[in-house]
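Shape matters. As here.
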Amino acid sequence: MFGFIIALVGGFVTPYLDAPVARPLAKLVSPLFTVEESEHRLLSFMVVLVAVGVLARLLLSGTTFWIAIGLVLGYFATRLVEGAQKLLANRRG
């Protein structure tokens, strides 16, 4: 269960890691291959995925399924909450 929570947080912070993590990493690998600007978010997600996987393994918590679900839910958390609020507002009014 703790792995799921770590993954949820990891997915949520992914967009905020573009500048501090993805850009320097893209610059580091630039002599080997080009990382497009549109791929920075994916690079951030991959770094978070590896970090969450390592943490979950070290803490002996979480299965691959729940880590994947946690990452996806965390990544789309703000949009999911906004959509649920709109749905509830439409039902009430």
Summary: The radius of gyration is 16 Å.
